[in-house]
Write a structure and sequence with these properties.
The complex is a heterodimer of chains A (92) and B (136). Chain A has 92 residues and is of the alpha+beta class. Chain A contains two helices and four strands; from the N terminus they run ββααββ. In chain B, a hairpin with a 4-residue loop joins strand 1 and strand 2. Classes of the chains: A alpha+beta (92), B alpha+beta (136). Strand 3 of chain A pairs antiparallel with strand 2 of chain B, so a sheet runs across the interface.
Chain lengths: 92, 136
Amino acid sequence: MLTKQSNFIILSFRIKSFRMPLAAIPIRCFHEIVEGFLDFLSLFRPISAKPFGLITMAQLFIYELQDYGSFDFIDVDVEDKENSVNIKFLMR
Amino acid sequence: MNEEIIRVLEMVKGEKITPEEGEKLISAITGTDSNAIKKSKYSMLRVRVDVRDPEKSEKAKVNVNVPLSVAKKAAGLMHLIPIDAKKELADKGIDLESFDLAELIEMFEDGEINEELVNVVAGDEEKGATVRVYVD
């Protein structure tokens, strides 16, 4: 089935002409990782409402970004005489 | 499927009611209004920052695109700003309590505001900075 939703978070980094993909995270894995992390933390101590709320909000953001579909979220390009750095955060 | 909706569809099929009447009944059952579902005029908030200094061979470009639906959710995070920070801003004349960001974003979505929110040009084309915040 074709859907408009994006399925991957892609982080990439370029120094001069060398592009390095930092991560291509399937969004459904991202949610599993976040929930697994919360479960893991709760083994040691109860999680207070504030960090739990923040993490839940982060998940909601990712859901919203996913629903929008494919787009370039952040694209930063900085260069001077010696260096050139480009960082991309893409939803695909 | 909801039993009541099936009954309405059967009534339309049996020509007991018109399709328009059926639609109104289904809207009443599901609590949705088809007229209320409207397509937003704009969907993306774009931030463009461009800084250039040819003397030092420095250049910086920042492009951030935020879907308005996400920006609206982010507006809901205003209550997470610490009270101390809100007080400090209020002392400087910025009252966050009176500023409804969600409403502003809705106005963008509806196309009530179709101008650029921010368009600052400092310097000239060769050396300077440009900051644009707009929706499309």
